[in-house]
Design goal:
Helix content is 37%, strand content 24%. By secondary structure, it is of the alpha/beta class.
Length: 265
């Protein structure tokens, strides 16, 4: 499978290049960076630290997408929606690990999925998606007698909050209760807030140091507490998951998929 990495100069982009090169059944066919990037013209493999792959980084995605079968995208909401439209025109797989997408961006992804196979997740790791499945089941079993709080911590450079993974876990908890997260989400508590409303799903965001990603879902009930947690020690897990998602989506019909589909959950 011929895969393109967008944002190839960034830390995640370089990890994606390494993951593609290390995975049987796929090859790097293109690498994209923004106009004016110092990485333009460099070999993507050399930049990623694995030696030349014969793929020069370019800022012109059109011919690269036309020759590819899939694109791996951990960029920004604006860039992701642009790449989604190109992927739809090329009828290729688009794996989206970008976080911070709003309603407008999500609507544009849904439109692109009429022609492209889009796999989108707030987290591409196997462990996190298994955790989400557990959260969904536990939330359904315990009901509103147990309050749900989601605590996440990331490195100091992360720009969106709560994290995409925290929101993914919140969606799973809400689904388990048959509710919409938008109706139950509480992301800010400050000052005199009053008592906690039954059924709320709370989020606490921590930032500091070089933490890759820690997430805990707390179910706090009368006289007992259950905590489900995931600790990410290496960002390579996200890159490997993204490549796995692309290979899975290769022969699927156009549509919008998630990692739960990829993992058969």
């Amino acid at each position: 499978m011929r895969l393109v990495v967008v944002g190839a100069e960034g830390r995640m982009g370089r990890m994606l290049v390494r993951a593609v090169a290390a995975t049987e059944g796929c090859e790097l066919s293109g690498a994209i960076e923004r106009e004016g990037s110092a990485a333009l013209g460099q070999d993507a493999g050399t930049l990623a630290g694995i030696g030349p792959l014969g793929v020069a980084i370019t800022d012109d995605p059109l011919p690269v997408f036309a020759a590819a079968e899939g694109v791996l995208d951990f960029t920004t909401p604006t860039a992701t929606t642009f790449f989604a439209e190109l992927a739809a025109q090329a009828r290729i797989v688009h794996v989206v690990g970008t976080t911070g997408l709003g309603e407008v961006e999500l609507a544009r992804l849904a439109a692109a999925a009429r022609h492209a196979r889009i796999v989108r997740s707030g987290n591409m790791s196997l462990g996190v998606n298994l955790l989400a499945g557990l959260v969904r089941k536990v939330a359904a079993a315990l009901g509103e007698d147990f309050d749900i709080e989601i605590v996440e911590m990331h490195h100091r450079m992360k720009v969106d909050a709560p994290s995409g993974t925290a929101l993914l876990l919140g969606e799973a908890a809400a689904e388990g209760r048959g509710a919409a997260l938008a109706d139950k989400r509480v992301s800010i508590r400050d000052g005199h807030t009053g008592a906690r409303r039954p059924g709320d799903i709370g989020f606490a965001t921590l930032r500091g140091g070089s933490v890759v990603g820690d997430h805990s879902v707390i179910f706090a009930g009368p006289g007992e507490q259950l905590t489900l947690s995931h600790h990410a020690a290496d960002r390579e897990i996200f890159a490997r998951g993204a490549v796995r998602a692309a290979l899975w989506a290769f022969d699927r019909k156009p549509g919008l998929y998630g990692m739960t589909d990829v993992l058969g959950l």
